[in-house]
Amino acid sequence: MDYIISTGSNLIHQTAFINLTIGNYIMIAVACLFLFLAIKKQYEPLLLIPIAFGMLLVNIFPDIMAHPGSHGEAGGLLYYFYLLDEWALLPSLIFLGVGAMTDFGPLIANPRSFLLGAAAQFGIFVAYFGAIVLGFNDKAAAAISIIGGADGPTSIFLAGKLGQTGLLGPIAVAAYSYMALVPIIQPPVMKLLTTEKERKIKMEQLRPVSKTEKIIFPILVTIVVCSILPTTAPLVGMLMLGNLFRESGVVRQLTETASNALMYIVVILLGTSVGATTSAEAFLNIATIKIVVLGLFAFVFGTASGIILGKIMCKLTGGKVNPLIGSAGVSAVPMAARVSQKVGAESDPTNFLLMHAMGPNVAGVIGTAVVAGVFMAIFGIM
User: What is the mean pLDDT of the chain?
Assistant: First the structure.
């Protein structure tokens, strides 16, 4: 009888229910909410499902993120995934896949898009000073502020490079959450800052871009950007390499691998490891709340900055630029461009803004990587 009682007691104490805290239950509920948004609402399911499941796992079984022991004990499964984030391998590979999937034609056809992509980065600098005011040190403030670019890989990359791995979980989850919630966050800002007449503006069809231009573009951008800011090479270099795969037309197998199999493998590893950094102990604190609020503020301000410059360009061109495309200057590709199209179509169903919005959208990806490089240069990070 004692054996049965002892065995039963051991089994009960081995269950997660004995060790779960209220914080763990809160994070499990948040994970389930993310899964609902990803599956039911289809908000960036490729990102939210692995992130939410990593969040679920670490709050049920914390040892899945355990560090290796000093006596040779193995670490948890997701700890080794997470190391790839810290080493900046996964963010760089994500950029390789994004480059292989992205057509830079709209940006090449309308170079003014670079200005809209740059304008959308102002939210990052506003959030940087806001984070300083809220008590974060300069490196932490820089890592937090990059959330305003709505670029998850760059947020992870910069947090790792600046040694802010303690904040990497909240930063990455906030960045990816805002990327997924672009269709909810951006439209109110877009409608608030534009008139019905502006939203109905139809833009002229973009000029055709030659294959030669598309091949030269990634090479030229790599030379210029990486020469000025060498620390951007892991991100900008991989982005342009992936695009060169696509546009050269001679490495179809590499293009398909980078944009499909490799991309999806990396998303699984990155998503689950990012989600696994959100244990209740690490996530439920005042610093996390500040990060989430600052990230949202940066994202909203970046969206607004892009639209405001779009309105200025509209005036200067005599009404030839629809200000809505300025909101696509954040780095959420191609979701932000789709939102520009959707909001424009609500005012005029015959208005087609998607390709025009892709220019600022792609420029925003490059712009956020450049801002990350600027921060690393400021802090002397190589």
Answer: 91
